[in-house]
Target: Glycosyltransferase
Amino acid sequence: METEAQAGWDFFDSVDFPADGTDDPLGRAPVRHVVTAIVVGHDGAAWLPRLNEALWALERRPDRLIAVDTGSTDETAELLANLPGVEPVVGLSARTGFGTAVARGLDAVGFAAIPSAAGPYGSDENTPVREWLWLLHDDCAPAPKALERLLLAATINPAIGIWGPKLRMWPRDRELLEVGVTTSLGGRRDTGIEPGELDQGQHDTMRDVLAVSSAGMLVSREVWEGLAGFDPRLPMFRDDIDFGWRAAKAGVRVAVAPESVVYHAQAAAAGERPLAGTRRHAYQLDRAHAYYTVLANAPGKLLPLLILRFLFGTVFRSAWFVIGKTPSGAVDEWTALLGTLLAGGWTKARKDRRRLNKQPHEGVKHLFARSVTAIRHSLEDTGSAITERLRDAWADEPEEQVVTTARRARSTSRVAVDQPRWRRQLIRRPFLVGWIALFVGSLLAARSVMGSGVLRSDVMPPPHDSLGDLWHAAATAPPGVTPPAWLGQFSAWVFVALGNPSLATDLMVLGAVPLAALTAWSFLRKIVLDRMARAWGATAYGLSVFVGGAVSQGRLGTCVAAVVLPLLAMAIHTVTRRRRVALQGSWRAAWFAGGCIAVLVAFTPSLGLLAAVGAAAGGLLARGWSRQSRQLLFSSVLGLLLVLPWTIELVLHPSRIGQEAGGAPTAAIGPGDSIGRLLTGIPEGAPVPWVVGIPLVVVALLSMLRGSRSKFELLGWAIAVTGLVGTLASSRLGGGTGPLMLLMTAGWIGVITVTWDSVGRSADMITRGVLAVVLLTTVVSAGWWVVRGDDGPLRREPAQDLPAYLVSAQEPPLNRSIVVASKQPDQGIEFTLVRNGGPRMGAVEAEAPAAQSQSITEVLAALGGGGAGDEAERLAALDIDYVYLVPPLDPVLVSTIDSVPGLNRSSANDGAAAWAVEVRADGKSPMREVTHGIWRILGIVGWLLTLVFCLPTARRTVAGTHARRVA
Model:
């Protein structure tokens, strides 16, 4: 090769030039090394100039350089011809794989001739000579000392026949790619390098490995010819592992010389250029070659287990791709496995390699990756992929409008370094500090409702005992009754809460304040720049859940709505925002918005239907029949379809629109309530006086005096007015107004937050005074919350107010049924049928119609009228075992029941009375339940599809590649 180098060696750093020294430090006999280098190129014009520069910079250059072009369509052939000292370029077809190209290049040109003069390691012509083959890719660049250090390692360790360098990220990064490579018997390629790990000398130990990368591999001629080169059935990917595995079986040692550094772009694996030698996708090719490598080289006794392992792995990865909306990845998985198994090439390879089986598998077993390690890396990669894709999917994009420098500067707080640490954190991360305060406050506020038992209130029945019981309640109901849709959705939250319905209820009700604040902050950070403004907005929104009485009254539906409402706003914002790209809207966000609307319709029908109609109408009126308006309309329709048949139930029984999860309407504002309570959204029975909400309303009204208003401020006003009108309409129709009042309060808070963001750090004393009033109101509300606590109507008690023996009698194998009745003065007898653990969540919505319970009503009416003497037989025929009267007791009714034959007194709690039905009747006709199986199956399928389309798309990546950084 020429001794003159071209200009431009600035590609290399001083770290690429280790200390000089080419002699064996142990003083062993010198060896003359003759090196034949071969470069295979395919559409590598983007990388070959760097390789050319690197070859010029080599201090120890190869004795012969062979270049092979495999059907490139760019300037690769011309660039290969310009490499220093290169032989005439060998041209091959684009279907030629890497190993075949190397073999064809050697056939066409041959190895370098052994010179008669002594080499650099001695002057004696009798010095032993070793011939080497140095493999290079067109997208790699060896450091100046790369070949010299490989040959020095070969001199020190003459028993090793294959050497590999340390690979770093292209073009000159300190990030590590490989320091040797291995595989598990499941086919997972393992480099032992963590993603993003920097080279700090932690792997600079010369050691034996299973294989080294073909980018920079130095292999002795006798080993190359003895192993017949790379397997032609592996045009690329895994050919290096297969070659190293065959070498290990043949007794040839493979080692890595970490002082030798080669930079590698991994262009084909990263999808930066088309593949040479195949038309298949890189992922499919990599998987197929992984299966082939293991099947062709693994011990025969392990093949049945390995094939079964491949099958299970393919099933799980296929499911991952289907969930990730990449069905082509699932097709690649099955094509790779079945194609490899059925093609039979691996069986022929096993026959051809029998002559190499000089080393048993137990002798090289330590070179392979452990299966446990492979599983751990797979889980880590899956978690990292999910996190990365979710971050990419929901990453905020800049609006079309240009944010001024002054306004952007307001979002960045500069703090003097001499400030106390707590003050610096408060200024830089106000919401983090505020959220921690809300979290601690929620623990303190819940002090009076902690302990044994379950949370319950007048509007929230006790939770179910298990996830199975909850799911049974979500799927069954009396004939003609639709089970509430929110039970099925709540089951998913219970599953997250370790399958404990009581724990799930505690987290949602008692943790509603910090959870709502967190979701509100997630939305506000997309539209509000000022940190203090959005921190206040999120905190105030979270506290509004307590101020409105949702926590202390145990209104589960409003608590859930408070958490979901900001998520819906965030999804709608993602759909409607203007982008710099031509494609508008986001179908992923549209699916997510549909899921949020479905949750709102299930837990708070009035708020959910209002959100569905508002999203569809707003999109059509503001955008016309555009892509974004169609996405909003799709979200509305999807939200209504996901809660079928509950949507039909709401149409047939409009009175249920005013309910929320738990049963009867709550927090109703009647026509006679004060205008103050109506505007502030603090109903009668709320834990704070309604005057606490006056500052928010006044400040929101004062914001109207500003000369200009942003679209988000106008939107906040529209939401507040909509909530106000909805509250008035619902109160006069006898429905619940709690969720609609929450919507109104959210509108007031949104207006103030956006206004605060607009005025920023105004020096006007009036503005500062108004903001101080807002902050003082928030502090007072928070203090009231912590001091008062979450108790009130909400309490922690046993799930049933019945004696212990009646509670246990409802459990298998007895399965007793109990009529719990009560009689108020001058009123009829009201009753509840208790069985299977008693009335639990959803029992009010799924209550049997009066016609179905007419028989029990008639029996109780007969008892109230003096009795006919046959009530015990009639109760027994209805499969009722006990009658339980709750206080206050009617003496006449108690005397009548005592006189009925077959009804015998049992023990009861203080002030109550109980009777056991001693008569046994044949042909019992208990109240039946119908399982709505088809709707539950359709609901599960619908929610799974929604979840899939909400998630980001899964990527097909070749194992062992790292994220690319463009030079």
Observations:
- The chain has 35 helices and 21 strands.
- The longest strand covers residues 253-264.
